[in-house]
Amino acid sequence: MTNYIGKAVKRVEDKRFLTGKGRYTDDIVLPGMLYAYIVRSPYAHAKINNIDTSRAEKMDGVVKIYTGKDIAESGINGIPTGWQVNFKNGDTMKEPPHPLLVADKARYMGDGVAVVIAESREEARDAADEIDIDWEELPAVASAKKATEDGAPLVHDEAPNNKCFDWELGNPKEEVDKAMKQAHHITTLEFTNQRVVPNAMETRAAIGQYEEATGKYTLYTTSQNPHLTRLLLCAFVLGIPEHRVRVVAPDVGGGFGSKIFHYAEEALMIWCSERLKRPVKWTSDRSEAFMTDAHGRDHISKAEMGFDKEGNVLALRVKTHANLGAYLSTFAPCVPTWLHGTLLQGLYVTPKINVDVTGVFTNTVMVDAYRGAGRPEATYLLERLMDTAALEMDMDPAELRLKNFIPPFDGVEQPGYQTQVALQYDSGNYHAVLKRALEMVGYEKFRKEQAEARKEGKLLGIGFSTYIEACGIAPSAVVGALGARAGLYEVGQVRVQPTGKVSVFTGAHSHGQGHETTFAQVVADRLGIPLDDVEIIHGDSDSVAFGMGTYGSRSLAVGGSAIVKSLDKIIEKGAKIAAHKLEASEEDLEFAEGKWTVKGTDKSIAFGDVALTAYVPHDYPEGVEPGMDFSSFYDPANFTYPYGAHVAIVEVDKDTGHTKLKRFIAVDDVGNVINPMIVDGQIHGGLAQGIGQALFEGAMYDEDGQLINGSYMDYTMPRADDLPSFEIDRTVTPCPHNPLGVKGAGEAGCIGSTPAVVNAVMDALRPFGIKKDLEMPLTPERVWRHMQS
Amino acid sequence: MPTKITMTVNGQSVTKEVEARTLLVHFLRDNLQLTGTHVGCDTSNCGACTILVDGNAVKSCTMLAVQADGSEVTTIEGLSQNGEMHPLQEGFREEHGLQCGFCTPGMIMAAVALLDRNPNPSEQEIREGLEGNFCRCTGYHNIVRSIQYAAKKINEPKKAVAS
Q: Domain check: are B97 and B131 in the same one?
């Protein structure tokens, strides 16, 4: 069999994980390796008057202690950000330094102040306890809205009112205000899209290794994009030579965005190793991860949607304060702006939209992309508005959506859809996903059951959500104009070995997505060879020429397309060799099922024979180079736009406020599907995370900036018995602008699900009358209080 | 003061000197290089370090190595027999019960104990039985299917013998 595309091929990477042979960063032990422990600020905002390490230095096993002062004196730079969003008036974005360890003051609970390096993990930790720090606590601010008020504590002296940037997109505000005035009904919501902790099951880890004899540096790290980390390390932070730096992201235990970013610990381990001439490993424990991994979301928004008498949307006005944390993480400025404001068209024909976002520094850990990154925030806002408006106007929430959807377009015969907020959607049939979801729910029947249940005093509710997302973020020239400091293409190299076996090097990185299977399916299918003859190599900058990594559901759409470009080159070159061997002209050949055949004859030559000829070019076409190895950079023409419709059915316990998620239906359109089993798995995982935000999760900082639920004892992660089995289906509308027709599936579940659940709970609570909105997570206590109010 | 301990790990007797404070999970990972058992938290909530100690599922971060002195320990590395995957390993592969693979060893070891206790669990019993194990990738949907697959496979030959 060589027909692999569209088949639920079992994953080739599974065996090592199932037998305990996965190789994650913390599993790696290098000869002579030392262990680092980072001393962190217990305060959200505090001046460091003095650090005394003398007692700790005398402890058993301690090799060296460095403090922020050592870092400052070494003259290296801090951690940069990869995106620039300037103020509306043209002023440059505030970009205060982010040192690897702070010397003057700590700006969030968890800010690193010193690193202890010892012969063992335990000795490093023991010594850290003996470091005396003279702290002077300062007033702190954790809320983005409060931080912009006059007199609020300043996180960075150079950012007045803690503002990093302010930004606006869409139609001029006056036009939107005017449209709002003509509205028959305006629905207004003010809410917090709460901060969540990504919580990949593998915590971050980094090993720095400097080899004096060769002058080479190696960083093993839990990264979603090793090449970008290398570039930032070399060009911005440490100034070390990129061609002597190898970054390896081996097996990585989940990312969900949190491992995209270049973190201080990565540079710090290299810096320490260079000084100590021994490898140094740091592994975050979970408490440290809660404090220091970049969090997601944390928007405070006011959103208003105006409708005419018939329920047609006239205008949308949004004002958001986005919490960026204490420093700018790699993509932080982009998430609440270009990944949030641009999605506020949703699936609707809304003629006037204005979105205004202020990016704010606070005394909290950095906030950056978390599964969906900006798009869940946009979807939450739109879809909560839709269900609330339907309730207020006494309309059916599904009908209201169907009425306002953008009409179907395929992006080929019909042009893409130009939104009011900068994007051009590629292709979509939005009615189809919602109609399919309604069918799966048995909508009419459900409403009858609900009415019966209400008579019995049961609180049954249904909630809808439809969404669109922009994935495979691109093209480079466009994102550059929007403030990206990197290109956003991908690299795919295909090396046909002399025996016809194929090694594929991709700049995408798999940390659960199953690229080793999906990408191999594409290659085996196109070349007509067995799947087992293809090996996918990723995550090592010494093997893979370059790459931009995996995030934003981009791997197959961008990385897969780069591989296809190289496959095209292989097939084109192969045809020249085949034509020579078959003594035919290239035009007379066709390539199918792994061989070139002279059309209309039985004369053919197999792929493997052509490969061997390319490497043993004795009888060879003139002017053709030996070998079969091509690399391609693919820079897409546009984003891709997956979309879908999600429906939640819940029952709320009247006495306890506990929400039971009874059913969850998701119909997604992610374009063409290479491996349906893997796509389904991506949807399931996304759903669990989105539902988690709706019902369970939320990082809580108190007024002093203390993270008060920074462990699994306190932060509620969704467990197996919190969730139902999911009911999922899809429609297929191919992406018109990439060779695979794929759109991306990694974030869809997480984007659509959150508002569906909250809408369902609000619907369940309808017998209590329309009350003020509920804030996520919808804990039993909150729901119970709501019912009593 | 290091303490000398002896235990059987995956069928092999091992004797080592450890510090009294060494957790069993660190003993397995650092002293025996059995890195299939993972550390996912520091509060005994996530279950990534689940192994079998004398046949019971135990979070190996909750136990000191010295407490396992004299015990019989099975880790994910010891689950396959004669190169054949255990029905649970097979189930996780067939039903796509894993993505990043980090929670997988603990999840499988917890499931081994679950099926030992209850060879024919309902979906709800499986979900409740996995309460001590977090997975952030799969939404548990396919993990449930994987365990159902294994239960079916484990029960099949028994039925054949009985008939």
A: yes
- Please name which of B35, B137, B143 lies closest in space to residue A253, comparing C-alpha atoms: B137
A residues 268..327 contacting B (CB < 8 A): 285-287
pTM for this predicted structure: 0.97
- If asked whether residues B91 and B144 sit together in one domain, one would say yes
d(CA A93, CA A199): 30
Size of interface A-B (CB pairs under 8 A): 178
Contact A269, A36 (CB under 8 A): yes
**Would an 8 Å CB–CB cutoff place A21 in contact with chain B?**
yes
A21 and B36: CB-CB below 8 Å? Answer: yes
Inter-chain contact B140–A688, Cβ cutoff 8 Å?
A: yes
Q: What is the pLDDT of residue B163?
A: 46
At B157, the pLDDT band (50, 70, 90 cuts) reads: low
How many residues in total does chain B contain? Answer: 163
- Encode pLDDT of A154-184 as tens digits: 999 999 999 999 999 999 999 999 999 999 9
Q: What are phi and psi of A516, to 5 degrees?
A: -60, -25
Res A267 pLDDT > 90: yes
Q: Could you report the per-residue pLDDT of A328-363, keeping only the tens digit for each?
A: 999 999 999 999 999 999 999 999 999 999 999 999
**Residue B158 scores a pLDDT above 80:** no
Picking from B78, B101, B121, the residue at the C-terminal end of a domain is: B78
Q: At A743, is the secondary structure helix, strand, or coil? A: coil
Mean pLDDT of A422-428: 95
Q: Which residues 560-589 of A have a C-beta within 8 angstroms of B? A: none
* Closest chain B CA to residue A514: B99
Number of structural domains (chain B) is 2
Residues B130-151 have a mean pLDDT of 98
The pLDDT tens digits for A5-15 are 999 999 999 99
Same domain, B62 and B108: no
The verdict on a CB contact (< 8 Å) between A677 and B100 is no
Average pLDDT over residues A432-459: 97
Residue whose C-alpha is closest to residue A487's, from A497, A478, A476: A476
Is residue A654 within 8 angstroms of chain B, CB to CB? no
3-class secondary structure, A117: strand
The two tokens of residue A651 are 């029952």
- In A348-429, where does DSSP find H-type helix? 375-392, 397-404
- Rg of chain B taking only CA atoms, in angstroms: 16
Under the banding of pLDDT at 50, 70 and 90, the label for residue A772 is confident
Q: Are residues B68 and B115 in the same domain?
A: no
B142/A684 CB distance under 8 A:
yes
Q: Does residue B72 sit in the same domain as residue B106?
A: no
How close are the terminal C-alpha atoms of chain B, in Å? 58
**Nearest CB partner across the interface for A723, out of B45, B134, B139:** B139
A1, pLDDT greater than 60:
no
pLDDT at position A275 over 70: yes
My answer on whether B70 and B11 are in the same domain is: yes
What percent of chain A is predicted at pLDDT more than 90?
A: 97
CA nearest to A11 within chain B = B93
DSSP A215: T
Cβ count within 10 A of residue A68:
22
Contacts of A689 in chain B (CB under 8 A): 136, 139
> What's B53's domain CATH number?
3.10.20.30
Are the beta carbons of B139 and A122 separated by less than 8 Å? Answer: no
- B64 lies in the same domain as B94: no
Domain that residue B36 falls in: 3-78
For residue B100, give the nearest of A122, A254, A684 by CB distance. Answer: A254
Please give the domain boundaries of chain A with CATH numbers for all domains.
31-138 (3.90.1170.50), 296-473+638-788 (3.30.365.10), 476-634 (3.30.365.10)
Taking CB atoms and an 8 Å cutoff, what residues of chain A touch B37?
20
> Do the strands A727-730 and A659-669 form a parallel or antiparallel pair, or are they unpaired?
parallel
Same domain, B99 and B74: no
Query: Which of B50, B78, B106 is where one domain is finished?
Result: B78
